[in-house]
Amino acid sequence: MGIIATGRRRNRSWPEALKREIVAASFAPGASVSVVARHYDVNANQVFNWRKLYREDPRAPAVPVVPQLIPVVVTAEQDAVTTQASTVAAMIEIDLAGKYRVRVSRGVDAEALRRVLDVLEQRR
């Protein structure tokens, strides 16, 4: 004979900081709301509600709290291979999911580059 649980499901009170953490995790690149919800033991519909709530809240984090790794492919340009290292201009190319490509040369303002990458990341 099995045991049948009866009664109401209790409502949990989630601290605002934890809600924001869950919302930020759900917006991380490649994240699934249902996987994030299971990880935090919360209903996925509740996560969707919090996403709506904090999307309109200016205090919501603009970027994910967790550092993200992005794939990098290093390639040598044909001219760079045959040129001496002292004459090669230092340049990197950043490809964001095949949608945006940013080329950065020596002397770039790091803060300006960070703002550009943040804006492009939000548009993906």
What are the defining features of this structure?
5 helices; elongated; 124 residues; mainly alpha
Describe the structure in your own words.
This protein is mainly alpha-helical and 124 residues long. Helices cover 41% and strands 10% of the residues. It has helices at residues 16-27, 33-40, 44-55, 78-82, 110-123, and strands spanning 91-96, 100-105. The model has no long low-confidence stretch (mean pLDDT 75).
Q: Quickly give the structural class.
A: mainly alpha
**Series of H and E elements:** HHHHEEH
Average of per-residue pLDDT values: 75
Please state the overall shape, judged from the principal axes of the Cα atoms.
elongated
Number of distinct beta strands: 2
Portion of residues within helices: 40-55%
Strand content: 5-15%
Distance between the termini: 54 Å
Annotation field: number of helices: 5
Largest sheet: 2 strands, antiparallel
Rounded radius of gyration (Å): 22 Å
Short summary:
The chain is mainly α.
Write the SSE topology.
Elements: H1 16-27, H2 33-40, H3 44-55, H4 78-82, E1 91-96, E2 100-105, H5 110-123
Helix pairs in contact: 1-2, 1-3, 2-3
